[in-house]
Amino acid sequence: MAKTQVKDSSEKIIVRVKSKSVAVAKTETEPEQPSVTPIAREQPATTAGPHLVRRWLSAFLGLTAVSLILASILFGWVNYTLLNNRQYLATVAPLASQPKIQAYLSKATTDAILDNNSPQDLAAKLNIKLPVQVPDNLLRQQLRSPVEAAVAKVFYSPDFAKLWQQANQSAHDQLLNLIRSKDSQGSLDFRPTVDGLISLLRQTQLNFINLSDITASNAKVNLSADQLSRLRKTYNASQRGLKALLSLAVLTSVATVLVANQRLKAIRHMALGTSLGVALIILAVNLPGHLSLNGVDPTAKDALVAATQTIFGSLARLCWIVLAVSLATAAAATGWLWYSGRRLKASD
Questions:
Q1: pLDDT, tens digit, for every residue of 110-132?
Q2: Is 87 exposed, middle or buried (0-12, 13-18, 19+ CB in 10 A)?
Q3: Which residues are within 8 A (CB) of 66 and not within 5 positions of it... i.e. 6 or more apart?
Q4: pTM for this prediction
Q5: Which of 286, 289, 294, 295 is nearest to 313 (CA)?
Q6: Do the domain assignments include residue 209?
Q7: Which is nearest to 73 in space by CA: 286, 333, 280, 305?
Q8: Does 222 map to a domain?
Q9: Quick count: other Cβ atoms within 10 Å of Cβ 73?
Q10: What is the pLDDT of residue 76?
Q11: Residue 49: what pLDDT?
């Protein structure tokens, strides 16, 4: 029994020695694997300084470009609409057929007739017999209705639309001739227009009307040397400045894109800035209709709103077109930036 235990223990010792010798042999035959250390990527040199300068320069040029674009829109509209005789007449012609304008002109002419005539004399001219002596203030109120009815027939007639066209053409021609001349002073003569209006009024029951019944002046507007000088400077600036503004707007826009660190973003920012600018112009054109002008006659306010929307309507339509183009440009730039970012992520 003791011999058997000694034999088993000796066999175990021999097995352990053999396993250790085999492990040692394997370590001697297998080469040692070198340790791998991660290679750090080379970091690009910092360019924060130049990038910051380009960013601020691009922002300045972008604001300048947007300002020049908006100024070009305004100057172009003035040249095309207000300084062009044919287009000016086409712009103001619809005013004569607008009820709010007609109502205001009727009221203003009625007030002028009542102010320049005594109520008693006016009642006698209209063949209105007064049974008793009526105070002037009450008689004035009674006379307003027949006078305004006769005046309204004139301003709502097609003959007044023709007179309105002739009056605006005459005034526009006179003003441009004065601006283009070298005269130190001048005047705008509206007497033919007033005479035409008197002629139309005399076809109604107001057949006694003359110049003194409508206005106390001689139907002329005198322009001083200072007023003419300002008008000439404005006219010359609008004539000569439009091409310069357009050229500078194009140059600064191109420079903004070239200087920018990210050109598509620069294009998007200019497009959004232009959109904001034309949106403010559209708001300004429509603003009078939303203002509550205390102390202003409602008829005069309605006429002002109608005249503003008619005269500046073409400017608003132009701004709507520019707004649509600018927003489409900003959307296209944003879409391309998003697409480029997706592609860059996919490549990584």
A1: 998 888 888 888 888 888 777 66
A2: middle
A3: 270, 273, 274, 277
A4: 0.73
A5: 286
A6: yes
A7: 280
A8: yes
A9: 21
A10: 92
A11: 67
